[in-house]
Amino acid sequence: MVIDSRKNHKLSAIFAGLIFVMLGSLDSMDSTAITTFNRLIYRQLQLFDNRYLLMINKISMTFSSWIFFIIYLVIMLLIISARQKRLLASWMLITSITGMLLLIMFQLGISGSNMADLSAITRFPATHVFLMTLIIYFINIACRSVITSARGIVFLKSISVLVLVITALSEINLHITNGSGVIGALLLSYCWIQAMEQMYVSYFKLE
Q1: What is the 8-class DSSP label of residue 3?
Q2: Which sequence ranges are marked TM in the entry (predicted)?
């Protein structure tokens, strides 16, 4: 299991955190620029709207919900614990619980800007994108010691990106969040992952 915390990662996490704060502030104030950006993204997605896409969106939202996040997490913890990596499992559990609390805190503190119909209540940061990012990150960590070939790593990363893109587009298309909410979720998850990696390197990397 490879988790490191390099200086350049810390600097990029700080930069991402500053952008997140700025974006969240603009979103909470219903900035004209942010609202225009969100409407543009939503309207572009509507050009491809059809019943098959709607079905994909609903399936994507189901499998990236809170319930499935907990199911994925429990399965991951059981597998990792069975491989005698209990400290890593404990770290993943702490990262998940604190990450969820952090997400809820920001969602309660930031009022997302409305969508094209000016009536949809949206979330900032995006819930499903944040949860799926954490799960994909955990899966990639667990697979690092199993998948060693360059082709296998590229395939895993490609699938991860594809799943994350589908989740993001589905969450916007179903009026659950907007473009700024997706960007906010990616920034927040990146910052949190970097912070928790530092915690792992400092206190958990004993196995």
Answers
A1: -
A2: 59-80, 87-108, 120-140, 152-170, 176-193
Domain count across the chain: 1
How far apart (Å, rounded) are the C-alpha atoms in residues 141 and 178?
A: 29
Q: Is 84 helix (H, G, I), strand (E, B) or coil?
A: coil
Q: Which domain holds residue 154?
A: 7-204
Rg value, the chain, Cα: 18
Let me know if residue 55 belongs to a domain.
yes
- 153 in any annotated domain: yes
Longest dimension (CA), the chain: 53
The structure tokens 């296998």 sit at: 152
| Domain contains 2 | no
Distance CA 126, CA 116 (A): 17
Based on the number of CB atoms within 10 Å of its own CB, is 185 exposed (0-12), middle (13-18) or buried (19 or more)? Answer: buried
1 falls within a domain? no
